[in-house]
Design a protein that fits this description.
Order of helices and strands: HHHHHH
Structural class: mainly alpha
Shape: elongated
Distance between the termini: 79 Å
Radius of gyration: 30 Å
Number of helices: 6
Amino acid sequence: MSTEPNAENPRPSEGRATELAARRLEMAARRRNVATLLLRRISQREIARLLQISTGTVSTDLKAIREEWKAEARVVLEDHIARELAVLNTDEQYWRSQMVTAESMDVRLKMYDRVLKIMDRRADMLGLNAPIRLELARMEAEKFAREYGLDAAELVAEAQRIMEEHARQ
């Protein structure tokens, strides 16, 4: 068969591209049907029978569908986490700014407890483990103590007490 352009086929590669596009459209339509039937809890064997395709094709389609769903779910989850982390950052900034103007140490410690809870929530969302969270809290407490001229050891001990109390709840 000649690949030279002629009256019937002016561009041979155009025909091949059209054929590939048609196959992709057909496969996408079939996968939508497979997904719809899957969501109705129809078995793979029954899906194959209804769509008049092999069970192997159904399995291949289901694998592709599940991978696509996982990818979509990851995007949704990452978007949710990003929004939640932004809210946590805003909340933390607010409470840190309030600590500056707090009149008593007791109020500052309560606000610091809120900051620690925000940090704990962020650590959970990011998958950090407890020992790392505790070390981060100690580092934050020491930084806070330096910033406000407080006794670092006393503040760390108080922060640890608050965290232990929080863990018991």
